[in-house]
Write a structure and sequence with these properties.
Elements: E1 6-12, E2 20-24, E3 37-41, E4 55-56, E5 61-62, E6 67-68, E7 73-74, E8 79-80, E9 85-87, E10 91-92, E11 97-98, E12 103-105, E13 108-109, E14 114-115, E15 120-122, E16 131-132, E17 137-138, E18 141-144, E19 146-148, E20 153-154, E21 159-162, E22 167-171, E23 174-178, H1 189-193, H2 203-210
Parallel strand pairs: 3-5, 4-7, 5-8, 6-9, 7-10, 8-11, 9-12, 10-13, 11-14, 12-15, 13-16, 14-17, 15-18, 16-19, 17-20, 18-21, 19-22
Antiparallel strand pairs: 1-2, 2-3, 22-23
């Protein structure tokens, strides 16, 4: 099937002439209009031509065997290279870089964050997604409501998973919890359980009634 989503132009990257800008052939998502220029790719295998929303913006780059798909986007000067896969609505921005065999399965990478080796970040639910920020470097697995930031390093044999409402913050100085504001709000039983909870009688009164 021919690529009806974008074309690769003759506009070469200033530093890496094997990369060329893309141009949208139709509207893509809510931001890109037909005719808009995007970032740089090495070949059509770097950006899906089948899904609706995946895109490479600004001066971002996808090269080598890297593949951007399933609504994922690269922005600013972000780079996906090697055999990195960026998918499931993931966003790479600023100068974030996914390289080697990295897999970004949702979540965000920003600032100068690096995902290298066989590193992986993955979403647990729409509200529990990982963020790699600062100048962190991740070789291992980060999943769920986790922020890896500053100059933190996650080694290849490490797996950091957090499924809680509160965000787990990992820096080079250690770990802390960023408490969710929702934690201090009291809910009715109906909101908490998702259904009307049965009324519970105090045990003492219940025993007296049984007598």
């Amino acid at each position: 099937m021919s690529n009806q989503k974008y074309e690769i132009t003759d506009i070469a990257h200033e530093k890496y002439p094997f990369l060329h800008r893309i141009r949208a052939l139709r509207d893509i998502g809510s931001e890109v209009k037909a005719g808009d220029l995007g970032g740089f790719v090495e070949h059509e295998g770097n950006l899906s031509c089948e899904d609706e929303d995946s895109w490479i913006y600004n001066d971002a780059i996808a090269a080598n065997g890297a593949f951007v798909y399933e609504g994922a986007v690269l922005r600013d000067h972000a780079v996906a290279c090697g055999e990195a896969h960026i998918c499931k609505g993931a966003v790479l921005s600023d100068r974030a870089r996914a390289e080697d065999h990295a897999h970004v399965d949702g979540g965000r990478m920003e600032n100068y964050a690096r995902l290298s080796g066989h590193g992986m970040v993955s979403v647990i639910s729409p509200s529990k997604f990982p963020v790699l920020s600062g100048e962190c470097t991740v070789y291992g697995i980060v999943a769920g409501n986790v922020l890896v930031t500053s100059q933190a390093v996650v080694l290849g044999d490490e797996k950091i998973t957090h499924d809680g409402l509160d965000q787990l913050v990992v820096t080079e100085c250690g770990r802390s919890i960023q408490r969710s504001q929702d934690r201090d709000k009291l809910l009715s039983s109906t909101e908490y359980f998702g259904y009307e909870a049965p009324e519970r009688k105090p045990k003492r009164k219940q025993r007296e009634a049984e007598r």
